[in-house]
Amino acid sequence: MIHPDFWKGRRVLLTGHTGFKGSWLALWLSELGAEVTGVGLAPDTDPHLFHQLVLGQRLTGHYLVDVRDPAPLAEVAALCQPEVVLHLAAQPLVRRSYRDPLGTWATNVQGSLNLLEALKPIRHPCAVVMITTDKVYENREWDYGYRENDRLGGHDPYSASKAAAEIAIASWRSSFCGPASHQTPHLSIATARAGNVIGGGDWAEDRIVPDAMRSLAQGEAIPVRRPEATRPWQHVLEPLSGYLLLAQKLAAAQEAGGDNPYASPFNFGPSLEANRPVRDLVEEALKHWPGDWQDLSDPAAPHEAGRLHLQIDKAHHQLGWQPRWPFATTIERTVGWYRKVHDSPEQASACCLADLSAYVQAIPAAAEAP
To answer: Is 230 contained in some domain?
Structure first.
């Protein structure tokens, strides 16, 4: 799936490199030998995976820049001269988006456009993968998985801002990628939609796995807001492998010339058996770290989607991508990471590298029809 020869020595601009997914991706890219320049905010939790992995020593460049500020973002892009861009920087939390809707919209929409504008002056081929979320679709609470051509929407500010980002990115690509005098022929842009990503090292607020791990570490019952809500749970390495593969395909098609068939949206999600209620996730986690949980359902709480599922057949057929770890393995690896690091905090990097090695060597799951 991932070709080390493609990434070795390749200049990569990674936004959101201090986040949960960004830290894992920075680690993977550095293991592949890429020259990674990171742009992101200062870590805001203690502990934080970026610090646990000592990533500042692995990167070619480490810049604390808010993507809402276009000038320093453009300066970093000019210094990096990236051949691949992976845009993960975002305000990623649904409940925080209710508290800070304007900041969420500014980061997720204007921040994405600021990055694309910063890349305009590039005069060499550059593959750009813009990460949004599985929540960009107008959620109809149905039993069918959403496909890339389904209607976009969003009830909460986070989901709506990410759907708006998809529209803005598509508009920017249509308007400014091409051979005309007002366009650039050097950029190929795709979007990647994934979510409900779990794994070791997520310390964010209001997410079920870090909330559960903190509770278990303190000997407390896990608080569960919506036990019956279903989500397509996947280990963080699953979508990251999709982003890397999509970037490879974008770059190869760009070198071949003509219209780039990969410059479009792609879903990355787990197999059907991993589309489970929150209750299942918590009870599976308790098999590996004994404890209890309590139902804290609140009908007056801010709206969150009840049912969510993605179809991934486009990624399977066009990219040759498919998930590798089934639900049980995902939970086992995730909880195992937290238990080991709880007992020995200095083992965080070793645990991540062990998970990465196991994932790379895993045979793709015999998934049900995507």
So the answer is: no
| Residue type, position 12, single letter | V
Number of structural domains in the chain: 1
Largest CA distance in the chain: 63
Model confidence pLDDT, tens digit, residues 281-304: 999 999 999 999 999 887 777 766
The model's pTM is 0.95
User: Angle, to 10 degrees, between the axis of helix 278-285 and the axis of helix 327-343?
Assistant: 50
Are 239 and 191 a contacting pair, CB within 8 Å? Answer: no
Question: Do you find a cis peptide bond into 47, omega within 30 degrees of 0?
Answer: yes
* Identity of residue 115: L
Tell me, yes or no, whether 369 lies in a domain. no
The predicted-structure confidence for 317-342, as pLDDT tens digits, reads as follows 999 999 999 999 999 999 999 999 99
Strand partners, 197: 234
Q: How many residues are present in the chain?
A: 370
Angle in degrees, CA 65, 70, 71, rounded to 5: 85
The CATH code of the domain that includes 124 is 3.40.50.720
Residue 60 CB partners (closer than 8 Å, separation 6+): 11, 35, 36, 37
230 contacts 281 by C-beta, under 8 angstroms: no
